[in-house]
Structures are given as C-alpha cells and as structure tokens.
Amino acid sequence: MNRVESRTPRFVVLGAALGVLFLGLPILGLMKRVAWSSLWSQLTDAATLEALRISLYASVCATAIALVLGLPLAWVLARMQLKTRRIIRALILLPMVLPPVVGGVALLGAYGKSNGLLGGVLGDFFGIQLTYSLWGVVIAEAFVALPFLVLALEGGLRAIDTKYEESAAVMGAGDYSRFRLVVLPLLRPSLAAGLLLAWARALGEFGATITFAGNIQGRTQTTPLAVYSMLESNPEGAYALSFLLVAVCVGVLIGLRDRWISGGTQ
Amino acid sequence: MIAMHGTIVNGSFEKSFDLEVGSEIVGVVGANGTGKTSLLRTIAGLHCLSSGELTINNEISDSPAHGIFVKPESRHIGMVFQVHSLFPFLSAIENVAFPLISRGQSRGNAKKRAGEYLEQFGVSNVSSQLAKTLSGGQSQRVAIARALIGNPQAVLLDEPLSAIDEESRSVVRATIRERLLALGVSALIVSHDIEDVRQMCTRIENYTR
Lengths: 266, 209
What we know:
By secondary structure, chain A is mainly alpha-helical. Chain A has helices at residues 3-6, 10-33, 39-43, 46-79, 85-97, 100-111, 119-126, 134-159, 162-170, 175-203, 207-212, 223-233, 235-256.
C-alpha cells in the first residue's frame, strides 16, 4: 500500500463516526432505560420466563427446519447449472427483503386454517393447526431465517475447491461419503456462521410471527412479542428483555467474527 | 492392465491416445499441453472419453459408444494429483488412512497401516500434524503414501516429486519404484524431470502435440 492509499480522508472518518453514532445511540438509549437494580427480577418474572422458553424452543426448531431445507437449496444454487437458478435464488431471498408482516400474511395464505392453500388439508386430514399455535411460531421464524442460512452455505460451498471431492472420489468415497467426510468438514465454518445468523434472526422475529401465530401469552408470545406487549404495561420489563436480546445478538456477532463478511471461508 | 484407445476432448484440447500398460511402471513425458494430466484424469474417471474405450484389468471403465462409464470411486485407483490435494482438516496419518476408511476398513486398522506407509516415506514424525501445516515436500510424501495404500488396481502419479528437495529425491524415487514393483500393478508417472522417469520407470512414453 502506498502513502496516498493509506491516508484516509477526513470526511470519510467523519462519516464513519456519524454512522457509529447513528447505530450506537439507540443501544445507549436502551441501556440508559434499563433498571439495573431490578433487572434480574424482571428477567425471572413468570411471564418473561415463559416468553423466553417459547422463544428458545421455537428458534431452535426453526433453525433445524432451516438447516434441513437450506442445505439442499444452497447445494442446488452453488453446484447445479439450472436455468431457473436466478428465480430460485430470488424466491429464497424474498423473506429477507419482504416486510415481515407481509410474510405473515403470505403464510396465512398458505397455511391459514380456513382459506390457506394447505391449511384446510392439514386440519382436515392430520388435525394440525399452524395458525395461533407454537408450530405457527416455528414456521414463521423458519420462513424468515432460511435465507440467512442458505446465503452462508451457498458462499461456503462455492469456496470449496472441487479437487478435494475429486481426490476423495478416486480414493473410493461415494456421494454420501464425500459429503460426510470431505464437504461437511470444509463447510463447517460457513455452517456455524449460517446457523448462528439464522438462529439470531429467528429469535428476533416479530412481524411474521404476530401476523401468523398471534401474540398469545404462554402459547405463541415470544420474547420480542413480550417486549411489545410490556411496553405500555411494564416498561421496565420491556427494557430488561430488550437488553437481553441485544446481549444475545452481540454474543452472536462476536461468535461470528469475520466469517459472514469474508464469505464464510475463515 | 490399462488399455486406452480413444480421444479426449477438453474445451479446445483434443488428443487421441493408444496406450497399453501392463504390470509395469510407465513414465509419461512431453511438453506442457500434450494431455498428460488429462490422460491420468480420464483413467481415474474424473474426465470422460469422447470416443473409444478404456479398460482397467480387462473390464471396460469408459466406453461412450456402449454407454459405459464406471465412476471414479469404483475404479480402485491410487492417484497423486499435480496439485496434491491433502485434506487440510485431517492429520497426515488420517489423510493416508482415508482410502482404507472410505472403502470400509475400521479406523484403527486403517491408521495402523497408514502409520507404516508414513514410516516408509520418511514422514512418520509428522503423522499427527494437520495437513495444512505440512511443508510442500512433506505434503507430497504423504500424498504418495496415500496413493499407494490399499492395494490399488492401478497407480497414477502426476508430478509426484515436484516439491521434494534434491537431497532426498533419490530415496523417494527408490521407495516409489520398490512399492510399485511390489504391488505389481499398472503405473503411470507424469514428470517433467527426465531423471525422475528414468530412475522410477520401466518404460517411457513420449507425447508431442
């Protein structure tokens, strides 16, 4: 790097500082409103614990669903020469850019009890009702979390040099063995990054969940929904829970380090 | 026994081969772009013949006219790639044990045999080191050991000594020749170094464009 390249213009530094302030101020504001003396009692309140339990259960299940569906999707996008690849990718990324409430409305259109494309079949033949149920929360969270996992895995799969799979094939490893013994270990950093991102997204899901599964305390009320409900009735509790979510997200980002930014290859 | 009478097409590259290799070590020499690596990749099953036929031990492995293509994992070949592709996340010994494990041997047994092969190629001191931490020469020795373990039906070595230093080259050449003769299989060695070929091989094939 020469001397000109290494010198950063002042307006860039100023812009970056404003950016940090813009992003950091709300977090500071949140921290200021947290009642630290009653934080523990707020977080261990029965309703809060219930919301946390639902959030944890639903987000883990949603991440598992995202993994089962996301890995084959990422493989198709990264490795198959399909004419419809752009359309498939656009469809997969849609929940990332769609307003979550619209995602929830779309889920109602698909799995809604009375008018959903599949909702009636699920109810009549299998006795399954997704709307306003815990599994509805799981589906809503999986819907918004899936793209994060697919993107991370697709990047990871593209970064794997095919020479490893070729040499494994020559050494007698069939399709499944190559995947298990070679691809999965090489994919591990991207998989970890994708799972963490998907889980964090599922944990923070709000719009699709409240639209599709409702906000029923003890059944479908997740932590973000509890924060929303508590804002008027118990602001201290809302700030305590918000602080917890921020702490979890910061933990996830620290865990990710540079993996997401560098394309999942580190 | 390897017999290949056919044409390889790879992009703009096209070349016909008439090659028969018995229980011998054949050195393949020639300038860059004469299809030496493509030849080895086709025998290994990583590239298809465009026309003609390839047989390994009298069984057809590739015959476009008859719609026959035996997958690489079913050809039972030992191979060193030009860019030796040790698995970076495995140790040296786990890399050498890989062909045995992928063909169903127990890990303990495979690692025991892998240890013996590492010893023969003078790299037993790095057996527990991750492959990504090995030097070029050490990686190449481990790759050769991995190609020769597991009694392959044929052995293909693409520039196997390119990263081996001059002092230890003759020892590695002698070990490769000794192991290949003991296996008694068809072996093809591609090398730019004519001395490598002379010392390891029993016959030389010279390819021109």
